[in-house]
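Sequence, structure tokens reproduced for reference:
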Amino acid sequence: MEFVYIATAHFLALISPGPDFFLILQASLRLSRRAGLALCAGIAAANGLYLALAVAGVEVLRQVPGLLLAMRYLGALYLLWLGMLLLRAPRPDLDGGKGVGGNGDDRPGRQFTRGLLAALLNPKNAVFYLSLFTTMVSPDTGMMRRGLYGLWMTVVVFSWDGLLVLVLGNPLVRRRLQGTVFILEKGAGAMLAIAGLTLPFG
């Protein structure tokens, strides 16, 4: 039952729209499927790192004075920067053109790094996983089982985010959204900018 509880809590948190969702939305509508999946891989890798820390019981982020605070401000600046890139991005050409600028870079390596940084610099990810393992995982649960929990959640993060990329990036879906892509992208940029402005006070 412990696995069911922790898996359910994790999935409910995962499907709640946050900064990662808006990055995935933009990548799905503007970039290639390969680049979008690379972004998802970066997000999953960052989540996997925090899960590894939580599984090991290492509460470094809570014990090192000022580390969480520094992450909060760095994360806020990064989200604000990403939001501004989206707000300033030109109208995409969904018939084959790619976006320009940092957020329109179609290279998988660049998008992997973008996803990795976005998830790493969001201190709420670290706090969530540490809290999840502190409150929902029994102290008697062995390291092997904890590791399987962490592996499961990392795979679920990539699978869910990748599914979003495949659905939203489908040519048929793109064509249906063609009239609203520009508005959706600006909305995503505004949400990221707002998240960046409010994160230090959250």
